[in-house]
Design goal:
Structural class: mainly alpha
Helix content: 55-70%
Number of helices: 16
Oligomer: single chain
Radius of gyration: 19 Å
């Protein structure tokens, strides 16, 4: 497999041409209302497992994912759970809410793909959900107070630009997935050389079309370069660190072939400094807090995807 070349090539697309191709990709209904009925019940103080289970039953994919997760090795149950009410009990409301957001988004993203390339979609979804989980874990170790699911959503959607790219720029994307890279940053370099925009910029623009909040679109747009974010740098920084931690846990980025992440490489990221500063004590505390989450992540994801 060829390696990424630093030699620049001529840019084949203008901004107008790139935007036209992205605009031709269908919008996702799930990004505008991610299972509102379930979210409303889960957020209510008077929710009952039976009510939540009834809504879950209306969505076969969500039902299957929920039962698969609760019966995974992560929970270590001796008897198989086939009852949705029991599954809700074991999982808890937070994980139910996360599943209710991830499932429709993943399914719709699969449907918009028009690429003839044979791509490892399952690996992308694993990485996306893993990044959502770790972004939430990372921001929970900071002083930032979040009273909604923005922390999970930004991790889940940070690579949406890759899905759009696979559909709108098939020839160029084929070259990207058949190239070996030393770092995730090298992937972005080749994307910009071949297309003009990288997957972060493509994803950020695509989500802006859906009129999502600036916190979400900025986090996606700047997740590879959080220092350049004019606002919401904390969110972009958390996604950058989460992406590397998920790769370190043995869950690749999805499509591209990037070398394994070295131990503690994330400590050198701009995102880490934005979140925790450069003090030795802060780094030690944050590293310890995230260590267990990274170790158990592959087991958690085995029941989700």
């Amino acid at each position: 497999m060829p390696t990424a070349s630093p030699t620049p090539v001529s840019r084949p697309y203008t901004d107008a041409e790139i935007i036209k191709r992205i605009d031709a990709c269908p919008k996702l209904a799930s990004l505008q209302s991610i299972n509102r009925a379930l979210a409303g019940l889960v957020n209510s103080e008077q929710s009952y497992n039976s009510q939540i289970a009834e809504i879950i039953r209306r969505d076969p994919s969500l039902t299957a994912r929920l039962l698969r997760m609760v019966n995974s090795v992560y929970f270590g149950l001796t008897a198989k759970v086939n009852n949705i009410e029991e599954a809700v009990f074991y999982l808890g409301l937070r994980q139910i809410r996360e599943l209710s957001m991830a499932t429709p988004v993943i399914e719709e993203l699969e449907r918009i793909n028009r690429s003839s390339l044979r791509l490892p979609w399952k690996e992308l979804w694993k990485h996306s959900i893993g990044s959502a989980i770790m972004t939430r874990e990372i921001l929970a170790t900071t002083t930032l107070l979040i009273d909604d699911d923005t922390d999970y959503i930004i991790g889940l959607l940070h690579n949406v630009g890759k899905v759009v790219m696979a559909s709108a720029f098939q020839k160029e994307f084929g070259q990207i997935v058949n190239t070996s890279f030393r770092t995730p940053a090298d992937v972005c370099v080749l994307e910009r050389e071949l297309i003009g925009w990288d997957h972060a910029k493509i994803g950020g623009y695509y989500l802006q079309r859906h009129q999502l909040s600036a916190e979400i679109t900025d986090a996606v747009l700047y997740h590879n370069d959080p220092e350049s974010a004019p606002d919401h740098a904390f969110f972009a920084a958390a996604v950058q660190v989460a992406d590397q931690l998920v790769r370190y846990a043995g869950i690749p980025g999805g499509f591209e072939n990037v070398a394994p992440i070295a131990d503690d490489a994330w400590l050198e990221l701009p995102g880490w400094r934005i979140l925790y500063g450069s003090g030795e004590k802060e780094t030690r505390i944050a590293r310890a807090a995230l260590s267990n989450s990274v170790q158990r992540l592959p087991t958690v994801l085995s029941g989700l995807v």
